[in-house]
Amino acid sequence: MSSTQDKNIIKFQKILDDKQYYEAHQLLRTIVNRYVKACQYVSSIDLLYDASKQFFKEGQFASGSDLALYMIKIYNMMELRPDTSSKTRLLDILYLYGSSEPTRKRFINEILSWSSKWGEACVGDADLHHNIGVLLAQEGDLFEAEKHLVLGTNESVKPLLNLLCDYLCEDDLNMAPFYASRIVFPYLILHNIACAIWGYRGMVDYLVQERNVITHTLSSSVADVVLFPSLPLMNFLCFLILTCQRGTVDLFHTLKAHYADVLKKSLDKIGHLYFNIPAQHSSKNIWSDLMSQLFSCESEPPGGLPGISYEPLD
């Protein structure tokens, strides 16, 4: 770093301390532009990161966000892959945004776009999705939080479940299958059976322990299933998970026929993903056929997947 650059950075800091925010912002951008022109990308990132945080802490959200977005632009110029350091910088800045700050959504979109371009996941980095989802969940934003949590890590199941249970706590008990489906269907469609199971188990624990819902346990050599006489669609979600675990196409057709009118679109999607079913399929099997197929011992769940059990979650 040259003495001229050092002097400019000192000048920037003095102008910022004097609360001349516009002038400080413009000077900082000029300094970074020179760094970028000289391919001094690491120094550019360090300067943008520190300056962006300072502007945020001064309540200058527009300037802070502009510099943060510039930092992501340099990430892309460097073809920088998501790692602990690069993600931590972005999350540090994200936490400084106010929930109502209009530029936050763009910042979130940009960091996910960068991570999808240079990372391993085409939908964006799982750690970033997790942290974004947790932040939105803490703000009580179910619809935005769940979009990110389902694309997050295994640790994302618990905050999503907690958020859904908080909403259900204020809602009618008959809405329980609706909230449970918001955790089961996305994970099944993402081919993540394990998280679908953990989410469903958590909802069962909540209904039994917090809402005192009456249940019956159906035991067999294959699985022990908790049934809800008053909430038949909860039973459907349980049977759907078991069906996807076992990978038996005839069993899926039976289940789909029984509930097709209610949940046709999602069932068609799962049928394509798990059983390679390209078109609609009608079946005359009745409920008793489903039960006998489900609890037969002809097939076992695919290896490496947890079975459904109902011990309370920690």
Structural class: mainly alpha
Low-confidence stretches: 297-307, 309-314
Distance between the termini: 52 Å
Q: What about the largest sheet?
A: 2 strands, antiparallel
Helix proportion: 55-70%
One letter per element, helices H and strands E, the order comes to HHHHHHHHHHHEEHHH
Mean pLDDT: 88
Count of individual beta strands: 2
Taking strands numbered 1, 2, ... along the chain, how are they ordered across the largest sheet?
Answer: 1-2
* β-sheet strand percentage: under 5%
GO biological process, one term: protein insertion into ER membrane
Pfam families: GET4
Protein name: DUF410 domain-containing protein
Keywords: Membrane, Transmembrane, Transmembrane helix
Description:
With 314 residues, this protein is mainly α. The longest helix has 27 residues, at 249-275. The N and C termini lie far apart (52 Å). Strand 1 and strand 2 form a beta hairpin. The protein has helices spanning 3-17, 21-37, 41-57, 61-78, 84-94, 104-118, 126-138, 142-149, 157-169, 176-189, 193-209, 232-246, 249-275, 287-294; strands spanning 216-219, 224-227. The model is unreliable at 297-307 and 309-314 (pLDDT under 50). It is elongated and about 80 Å long. The chain has a two-stranded antiparallel sheet with strand order 1-2. The protein is built from 14 helices and 2 strands, in the order αααααααααααββααα. One of its GO terms (cellular component) is TRC complex. InterPro entries: GET4 (IPR007317), TPR-like_helical_dom_sf (IPR011990). Belongs to the GET4 family.
